[in-house]
Structures are given as structure tokens and as C-alpha cells.
Amino acid sequence: MTPITEVEGRRLALSNLEKVLHPATGFTKGELLHYYATTAGALLPHLRDRPLSFLRYPDGPDGQLFFAKNVPPGTPDWVTTAEVPRTEGAARMVLIQDLASLMWAANLVTEFHTPQWRIDTPDIADRLVFDFDPGAPATIVECCEVALWLRERLAADGIEAYAKTSGSKGLHLLATVAPTPSERTAEYARQLAVEAEKAMPRLVVHRMTRSLRPGKVFVDWSQNAARKTTATPYTLRARAEPTVSAPVTWEEVGDCASPGSLVFRAPDVAPRLQAYGDLMAALCDSDQAVPLP
User: Fold this and answer.
1) SS3 (DSSP) at 186
2) What is the rounded CA–CA span in Å between residue 276 and residue 293?
3) Over the stretch 200-220, which tens digit does the pLDDT of each residue have?
4) Are 33 and 107 in contact (CB under 8 A)?
5) CA triplet 246, 205, 293: central angle to 5 degrees?
6) For a 10 Å CB count at each end of the chain, is N or C smaller?
7) Rounded to whole angstroms, how far apart are CA atoms 70 and 75?
8) Confidence tier at 148 by pLDDT (50, 70, 90)
9) 160: closest CA among 169, 168, 151?
10) Which EC class, in a word (predicted)?
11) H or E stretch including 47?
């Protein structure tokens, strides 16, 4: 029998709680749901008012993975949805506005991916993002070196940056900015990626061409495009272990000396939140936003 629970007055059917989703550690779906329930206070502000893209892995990372933006079949009528303009026509997408909706979405077993804009201002970014993707033999150690350089470069423009692990092998850098057309934020990010390559030509590449990437860090600026999304802070990733896209301190970035030194799993997050709070809380505070130069 499928267990029924009540979350904020909403009845939810939670299925397959004993199913192992992250085989390297035996992490189950029940543990996944517990993780999201206990992390909701930090996660929900990063999801709120941003249309959700689902990367689902209902049978774990070795099963079928599929990416979807439209509202999934069977979505309860109390889950907020909205029409989102897209080049190929409008799509209706989910908004995770509360704990009940978060737990419904978590029960689908999904990575949470969101754009850099909010539903009431599509194509107008309020966040700037850089995705550092290391090409072997480069690792997150090299990503941290690039992130430190880019942090200083952004500071020169009056922009404060915040770092998080990707939950995979790389690092993400984010900042809150005054509402700006996505095309403008993407171009600004591209310019800084080009500057980083010029400053560190043996370490950085700003083009996606795979033949250029071995041993370097690809600074992906393109996720600022309105149609692109980025893994949301605190989302679990579809990996053998229950790794999390976890905010990190700049001290941790500066001290990164080995590929495993910035790997955080679901059980690590609650103690970090207790110790630090949400290290990316400022991204949700519009008073912290500054205009692009």
C-alpha cells in the first residue's frame, strides 16, 4: 500500500520508500524525501517563483534519465503552474512555492533546475551564473583557482559572488544582479570568461569545443541565456552517491587541495546549515542586487 502523508494540509501519496536510488551508499527514496523535508527552509527560497525543469531519475542514476519542462501528467491541482513564453510556443511549467509542492516534486525523484529569472519577468535575469566544468586531468581544484580569480574580477565591478559545488565534478559561481535582460547578462558573463582565458590561458577555456578542454576549466557563461537552467542550490544530483549542489565558503574554495575535498552528500547538509545557515541567502534578497556595469 502506498503511504499517504499530509504536508501543510495537502495529502500526498509517497511511493517506493525503500527503493535504493543512489547505489554506492544504499541511499533510499525515503532518505531522499527526508533530505528535502529537512532542507526545505534553505532550498525553497531558491525555487520560489522560478519555473522548474525536471531531470528525473526514478530508478537511480543507472536507470532512465529524462528531462522535462512541461507540467508532468497527474500533477495535483494545488501545485502552482504558469504559462512560460518559449520560442516554439508557450509551455506550462511548475512553480515550487511551498513545502507540499516540494515534497510532491521530490517524490518524482528529480534534480531541480531553474533559470536565472522569475516567472513574473521572463527573460529578465536577477542572477548571474558561471559553471566551471573541468576537463580531465583538471579537477575541482583548478575550478577553485579560476573561481577565486573571477570572484576578484566581479568584485572590481561591485558584484559579490557566491560559490557552490555542482554536485558533480565542477563548481558554480552565482551573484544577484539588478533586473537585466538575459541577453545582456549572458554577454557580460561571456566577456568575463574571455578575460579569464586571457589571464590564465593554460587553465581556462571559454569555448565549448571539447577538443580545447582537456586539462582546462571550461567557464560556461551560456547558462545565463534565458532558455538555459542551472542546478538549484541544495538539489541532489543523479549520481551513484547522493551528492548535493552545496554552497561553500570562500575559505573552503581557497583551501581546496584535492578533488574529494569539496564533495558533499545529503547527510552533510543539515550540519552545514546549522553551522553556516544558507551561504547563498543573499541571492534571494533583492536589496543585495547591483546593476551590471
Assistant:
1) helix
2) 31
3) 999 999 987 676 778 999 999
4) yes
5) 75
6) N
7) 11
8) very high
9) 151
10) ligase
11) helix 29-47
